[in-house]
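Chain A, query sequence.
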Amino acid sequence: MKIYLDNCCFNRPFDDQSRIRIMLETEAKLRIQEEVRVGRFQLVWSYILNYEYSKNPYGQSVRP
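Chain A, predicted structure.
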């Protein structure tokens, strides 16, 4: 299965986890990440993600 995660998904684990919705979204993202890592899912990338990451004010980006 091909999976596309937007910029918000990649950043969700770094958000305040005190809200249940944020915590559940983080858990879902981490589970999907694990499925990609073991080869069950295929991560799809786009030029839009490259653009969004190029605008990161902290100078760091996550790329596959």
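The mean pLDDT is 88. The helical segments are 7-11, 20-37, 47-54.
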